[in-house]
Amino acid sequence: MNTITQQHIQVGEIANGLPLTIPVYRIKGDGSGPKVYIQANMHGAEVQGNAVIYQLLEQLKQLSLKADITLVPYANPIGCNQKSGEFTLGRFDPITGTNWNRMYINHSGLVAEFVEQNPTLPITEIAQQFRQRLVERTQALLDGPLDRLTTGKRIALSLQRLAHEADIVLDLHTGPISAKHLYCPEYAKDSARYFDIPHVLLIPSDFDGAMDEASFCPWWNLQQAYQAIGREIPVLTEAFTVELGSQEKIDLAEALNDANSILSYLNHKQAFQDAHFMPRDITRYVCRLENYRAFYAPMGGMVEYTAKLGEHIKAGQTIAKILRMERYLSETPLNEIKLDEDAIAILHFASASVNQGTELYKFFTQVETL
Ligand SMILES: [Zn+2]
Fold first, then answer.
1. Is-above-0.70 flag for pTM?
2. Which of 55, 184, 260, 351 has the most CB atoms around it within 10 Å of its CB?
3. Sorted alphabetically, which keywords does the UniProt record give (predicted)?
4. What percent of the chain has pLDDT over 70?
5. What separation in Å is there between the alpha carbon of 99 and the centre of ligand 1?
6. In this structure, is the dihedral angle defined by the CA atoms of residues 97, 294, 43 and 219, taken in order, positive or negative?
């Protein structure tokens, strides 16, 4: 049995003086594998990742580990307690309105100087020394004047500091009502074959404030900068956002499937000795981010969502019925909404009542197989 250690890291304090803390679990391997960081529940309602971390810990404590693995459930101690009535909110900071997953910082600015100072450094040294700079720069921001960081930034940077220690970063989210899908940087496309996730969204290596991007962008830029001086190195870190399914739901049996999917990927990355985890033989559909289509409600009303998530929709197929009862005597009360192209339905809005312009669905279009 491996030893699991627990630490509580303070990421802020609230008005009555109580500390905001996150639980950090660590399991150490024999040092010959990658360093792995997995966090869950940055968005308050997206709770299933906590169950996946539970199922991961249950298995990791019995495996022969090469990798050092750090797991952080309840990554956002404000978000998961942000309730309104019986529902959890927690997608946006309630004070500033900023998305909790857009407050990480891009350290790609460290790249140019590092490459200039270390043009011929061996790859293992590059990995170690650049990683150290990322950690130190993040720590310096946390140690800086207290009046420089917002509540959300302090939480994000505390998590980012932990993530920068790792070669592999997984940020566990869910959609609103959603099929499983994976946000995968284009350079790491081949790794998507090892997750049991049938829908893969390929994202460019740009930075928009999310954890996955904060984790891989500096490494992607480092690879590009070495290439520019005529030296080929791999991108030394992989980071993914794993969208597990729907929000406001814990399903322990499904969490075990998702844990096995993650273990299959980690096994491919040499995290274990003699482990049996293999990807399932499924078709994986790929969509580029620019073809990930948001479909906004063409009218307000009460919605029956008729497209099943993961379903392959044909152009002209009805995807929703919108009920308008104030029109019952005068006009058409029931309106069929159709899609004008072939697509895969990935997620839909969580509520049945929508305003005109609400994001009703998101679809993979121009789909290919991996
Ligand atoms: Zn999320």
1. yes
2. 184
3. Hydrolase, Metal-binding, Zinc
4. 100
5. 9
6. negative
